[in-house]
């Protein structure tokens, strides 16, 4: 089965917790703090494997979680960092954050990698908090949680040449004639339910990859037929072969077919109108084909180049492949305009730093604190130790939480909520 679009959940590994420990060795009086730092959690990395051509593996696994880092150990030993979780994807894979729509990665080359979810940093052990004022601290940090997000993984086939046209115009037969590919072929519409790839070699030993895409019909860009599902694969092809049934056996006008398909391409993405296109007049061995070809040339204009072929008798195929190879030699290997722009947030020095916290009121009257920085500090705090709790209180005071709550009218005994934790405000 061909799978080209899936939604998956990815999560970086949590960081390991720091340790509170002390040296307790003979002949080492007052040995001091010796708790080590926790290890970093593993990243989730997508890596291109050119041996894959579908997202089939994602059909059976929708969750990818990297391992957490090891906790810190005694004698200031650092917990082991977790290795990254490497997920193999086919070339042409685009990864988007479902919540924001941001493009996280566009992977096109073999072994190319992208970090999709970062692992959390390990927490610091109590050896890191020793000072002259507090030489034996009972403070250690919990590890940061790893990033987690839902992503949409899309595959856009990377082929040099894409075959487009109405159903049953002979695209699959043409592909099977010029390559070793064995697509399903029958005399009814939508025989091709999934894209087929094949490697073509011309008589002068120039080779390229050709993709047979499911037939397009009028309204394909709006989801009619199979067009909307597979039009995305046309985006990555360098050259289009527009295959037209010149026999007219199905009662359609070949020139109208030509206009309809081009309209569907432009309606899906205006850039496709600028894609080089070679017109292929197929089924020229049938009786009415020559007459329809002359009428087509009259309507299209005399300067248009059309390659008449017959896949049944193999006439005209070699000349067409030479023309395709010549055209590909002129085109760049990859059209950078078609590569998805991966958005990267760059923080400049003059940008105003985001507030460390925000305050709102809940329906029950409690004051609710939220914000990336204060939540991060909260998650790293070990609330099983008094010194850690006191340090957290000092950190909140330093951020201005106490002052802001007073401005909002908070009084002694009022409930303050942060994530799942509740505490009383003391003025």
Automatic annotation (TrEMBL):
Subunit structure: Monomer.
Alphabetized SUPFAM superfamilies for the sequence: Obg GTP-binding protein C-terminal domain (SSF102741), Obg GTP-binding protein N-terminal domain (SSF82051), P-loop containing nucleoside triphosphate hydrolases (SSF52540)
GO biological process, any: ribosome biogenesis
Main localisation: cytoplasm
The entry's keywords: Cytoplasm, GTP-binding, Hydrolase, Magnesium, Metal-binding, Nucleotide-binding
Residue ranges occupied by any OBG-type G domain in the UniProt entry: 159-329
Localization (cell): Cytoplasm
UniProt-recorded name of the protein: GTPase Obg
Binding-site positions, Mg(2+): 172, 192
Domain of life per record: Bacteria
Domain OCT, residue spans: 349-427
Residue ranges constituting the Obg domain according to the UniProt record: 1-158
GO cellular component, one term: cytoplasm
Annotated region described as Disordered, given as residue ranges: 70-91
Keyword Lipoprotein: no
EC numbers, comma separated: 3.6.5.-
Molecular function in Gene Ontology: GTP binding; GTPase activity; magnesium ion binding
GN (gene name): obg
Keyword Coiled coil attached: no
Family: Belongs to the TRAFAC class OBG-HflX-like GTPase superfamily. OBG GTPase family.
Gene source species: Halobacillus andaensis
Function description: An essential GTPase which binds GTP, GDP and possibly (p)ppGpp with moderate affinity, with high nucleotide exchange rates and a fairly low GTP hydrolysis rate. Plays a role in control of the cell cycle, stress response, ribosome biogenesis and in those bacteria that undergo differentiation, in morphogenesis control.
Residues that hold GTP according to the record: 165-172, 190-194, 212-215, 282-285, 310-312
Cofactor: Mg(2+)
